[in-house]
């Protein structure tokens, strides 16, 4: 019956196209909107995701990577003593101001990394190298923050926390969920920029020995340092993302906007398909008069709905891919994971199935009046 | 054959009643129909509009259940079998021809004729061959791949005949098969019907208003006031 399903579907080109547009629209909307959201929210955990550390040790009850609370630096030694820990380094994070050439200033988030290991340092360099950060007064900024920082060039002198700093390298795409640009430098210099005492740090970043169990090491660290919190990388990233999701209602508002748009798209699909089947009800009546079983008629409807959903999804995903290639940028990354694509396709398939089977339920029984006297 | 047929009617209707519920009140449409049709017979059903001809035809075609009375098709009591068996009966024993042909849009002549065989699950190549033969025998050999909207009304009705015969049913039920056609085409269609009945040895019940085609009937029955009266016929 597949060929019957496809041929009859193709007979109503106009309606078929409308339904297809609806499907494509729904897929693109969900994937692009969802992808933008994921791209945005993922910035909240970027530092952790790309930071190379296996475990982040911070103050007890810490809940966002960008808002640490100082801990004693001497904990580094106690963390190093935990079995399974290969390396542990202090890490500094704090807000201060950068003066701009025009006399203005901008709040920045200074990130101080350990000189030797450069654990948690910047990545994706556009100018300079990872080692550049070691140069005197060196700071690393991101080109995407150019408009906030007045386009700092490599070699340019600035003041960070009223202290002399020189731009030694630039990265691309390291952006914060907040409006404050990251400024990477060494740990010692960060202490100066932030005017912090030398016995403090924000985090201790841990690298595990090969084969060490993350969870067990985390537990061991917490046991030795009751005032500390130790997170695995992925977990801390998620905790940081959740912070923004739940505390700002961002998830809800973004989700609601997407849902509304999706609703429009799905209504369009449902309505067209409903009309398409309603239009053909007499034909289904004829089929039943000719001895089609219930299962055969459902088979026909389901194949049509599935064909429409599959074709629409394929086109939709192609459009999403093009949009992603064309418009995804470090500032507004569009991240479409497989489960989002799959989920949107499944949603569309369900809507197609429901809206093509629903009208048919009205004529479960063959209606002789409809069959014989139309 | 004719003796066996005479003793065993293909269609055996006894005391069938049917009423429709409309606006709270029951409208009696059929009140005590008795009818026996034998193999090879072509029976015409005539009567004023609204007299219940289509209703009776629907009951004969197992798409409507009578309120009372029994219907036997080739000896089987339709009232005693379940819905699945009724569906199979419709598919394998009965061929429908409708006034407006009811061909399926988007399917070619060949595909339309193939539909009943697909429903039956006949092997594709055998089905295709049979469909082409039937299309040939209704005189549409050239148009097997045409779409219904490219055909004239008379040609569409021919396709409908071919489709009705696809599963080699014993009984052909036709509801006003000539009502959508002009005189000449209607005549042609009836000649075709007679020829097919003879050629494939079918039993046919034809509902019609059209007095011009009465001469094609073996027997004419008039439905009025919910009852059938014999009006004679060719033989
Ligand atoms: N599903 C139904 N519900 C209610 N009344 C019905 C229904 N089907 C038919 N009727 C009524 O039953 C009566 C007989 O209808 P039927 O269609 O069998 O007549 P008919 O002889 O075929 O008429 P026509 O020559 O116009 O086709 C009519 O009065 C019709 O209005
Ligand atoms: Mg009628």
Describe this structure in words.
The complex is a heterodimer of chains A (374) and B (235). Chain A has 374 residues and is of the alpha+beta class. Chain A has 2 domains: 2-42 and 249-372, no CATH class; 61-226, no CATH class. Chain A contains 13 helices and 12 strands. In chain A, strands 1, 3, 4, 5, 6, 7, 8, 9, 11 and 12 form a 10-stranded mixed beta sheet that branches. A two-stranded antiparallel sheet of chain A has the order 2-10. In chain A, α1 (2-11) packs across α11, α2 runs antiparallel to α9 and α11 (294-327) packs antiparallel against α12 (338-361). The longest helix of chain A is centred in the C-terminal third of the chain and has 34 residues, at 294-327. The two termini of chain A are 25 Å apart. Chain B has helices at 2-7, 53-60, 83-93, 109-120, 124-137, 153-165, 183-200, and strands at 11-22, 25-37, 42-46, 68-73, 76-77, 94-97, 171-175, 203-207, 219-224, 227-230. The radius of gyration of chain B is 18 Å and the shape is globular. By secondary structure, chain B is of the alpha/beta class. Chains A and B meet through α1, α10 and α13 of A and α2, α3 and α4 of B. The complex binds adenosine-5'-triphosphate and magnesium ion. Magnesium ion binds at residues 53-54, 175 of chain B.
